[in-house]
Amino acid sequence: MVAHRNRTLTILMAALVLMLTAAPALACPVCFSANKKSRAAFIFTTGLLSFMPWAMIGGGVFWYRRRLREHDAETALDDEVNSDQNSDS
Amino acid sequence: MSDLTASLTQPSPNSVGRRLAIPHAVLGVLLFVVCEVMFFGGLISAYLVGSAGQSWPPADQPRLPVITTLFNTVVLLCSGWFMYRASLPQRNNSKAEATSSTPLAITIGLGVFFVVFQGYEWVQLIQFGLTIQSSTYGAFFYLIVGIHALHVIAALVALLYVYVRLKQGRLTSGTFGAAKIFWYFVVGLWPVLYILVYLN
What we know:
The structure holds two protein chains of two kinds.
Chain A: H1 2-21, H2 36-88
Chain B: H1 4-8, H2 24-52, H3 66-92, H4 102-127, H5 136-168, H6 173-198
Helix pairs in contact in B: 2-5, 2-6, 3-4, 3-6, 4-5, 5-6
């Protein structure tokens, strides 16, 4: 029981030390230390690359649904023509 | 059978009884174009971030030929219009409006002109000292414009294939649609690149 408590205390202490000593990592020069234009370009391009796939997926789904409707109409027309020809013959 | 409509109305060898809503070739090229859009989106993003923090274009680098490239842009846009003209018989699906392969040939001709003109422009720029190693400006320019030129060349090869199949009377709507989509992609992308790279 005592050993278990000591181990928990050690883990908590280690976590506390890590939290207190950690500093923000300035890995990306654009996020923190660059000029205003760079930051604006970075934010704009992040938005662009995030938004583009969704726009394309949305556009693709919209186009596919429309194409399916057209295809159904064409198929129905073909079937109608075929049945007319069969009844004539 | 040299007219586009007559050739395109032939059934696809892939179709089994019923027509496909979207031919396989068209679907494949659409997925490819989606990937390409993301690829060029990445290049454009890198260009925008790279050019934002400094004076652009750099003072010691030659300026790009804005007016002559504008002319070349118009040439490429015209090729897109001729591609549209070539696809009209397929849309209307009427033999009365059957167009010969002429619009397709003009599209290919204009595309070849665009690539040759751009190659000539590159030779001039290299002579003026703008190389891929001269600066970030040169590196971005040759990377973005060069990759687009490679796409135009690939699309021209596809169009030549379509033209040959059309002349042989063996062109399917799927093949034509796939080549058309890819050509529209390279044509539609160029004005964006022109505004970003040449007018920035």
